């Protein structure tokens, strides 16, 4: 297969937009072959945030558990036929007393084709982390409302995205 014929999309998702320290996040990546030929030599690697721990034995590929796989170390994926997808999923636990309020994640799909290494990064997903037993504060006022698209707190009925988000998440 010629490198220019490799056409992959990789869509990443996370099950929680907002979580607490100690919660478990479930990541899913759907890798689709949009080309006309079967793709071989596909590797999956996910550099995890320092604010999470990988849950051992949680990797599944197309619903099948792979007990020794670790996304941080990377692993090989099965061949991917034209117009088919591979579903990779795994869990992480959010650590206690983290410094950041947001856990970001992105994976990298690497394909070796025709002597060339091609990289296909996923989209970045983010989870806002609410620290347990700590009131949310904005401009000195404890609050419990968040703009989900911006992942920031607000007290003035307006957030950075100007969509006037009024949903209560906690």
Key features of this structure:
170 residues; 2 domains; 4-stranded antiparallel beta sheet; Immunoglobulin-like; 6-stranded antiparallel beta sheet; disordered C terminus; mainly beta; single chain
Residue-averaged pLDDT, rounded? 82
The CA-CA distance between the termini, in Å, is 51 Å
Strand tally, please?
17
CATH fold naming of the largest domain: Immunoglobulin-like
Q: Provide the β-strand percentage band.
A: over 45%
**Topology as a string of helices (H) and strands (E):** EEEEEEEEEEEEEEEEE
Query: How many domains make up the coordinates?
Result: 2
Helix content: under 10%
Low-confidence stretches: 137-144, 153-170
Task: Characterize the structure shown.
- There is one protein chain.
- A hairpin with a 2-residue loop joins strand 11 (about 105-115) and strand 12.
- The protein is elongated.
- The chain folds into two domains: about 5-130, Immunoglobulin-like (Sandwich); about 135-170, no CATH class.
- The protein has strands at about 10-15, 20, 25-35, 40-45, 50-55, 60, 65, 75, 85-95, 100-105, 105-115, 115-120, 125-130, 135-140, 140-145, 145, 150-155.
- The strands form five sheets. Strands 1, 3, 5, 6, 7 and 9 form a six-stranded antiparallel beta sheet that branches. A four-stranded antiparallel beta sheet has the order 8-4-11-12, with no helix packed on it.
- The protein has about 170 residues and is mainly beta.
């Amino acid at each position: 297969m010629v490198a220019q014929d490799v056409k992959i999309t990789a869509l990443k998702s996370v099950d929680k937009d907002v979580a607490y320290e100690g919660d478990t996040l479930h990541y899913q990546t759907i890798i689709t072959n949009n080309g006309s030929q079967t793709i071989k030599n596909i590797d999956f690697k996910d550099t995890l945030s320092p604010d999470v721990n990988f849950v051992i034995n949680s990797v599944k590929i197309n619903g099948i558990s792979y007990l020794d796989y670790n996304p941080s170390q990377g692993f090989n994926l099965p061949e991917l036929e034209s117009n088919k997808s591979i579903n990779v999923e795994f869990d992480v636990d959010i650590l206690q007393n983290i410094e950041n309020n947001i856990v970001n994640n992105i994976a990298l799909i690497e394909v070796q084709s025709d002597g060339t290494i091609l990289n296909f990064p996923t989209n970045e997903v983010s989870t806002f982390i609410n620290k347990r037993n700590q009131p949310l504060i904005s401009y000195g006022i404890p609050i419990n409302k968040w703009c989900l698209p911006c992942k920031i707190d607000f007290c003035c009925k307006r957030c950075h995205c100007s969509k006037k988000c009024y949903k209560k998440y906690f």
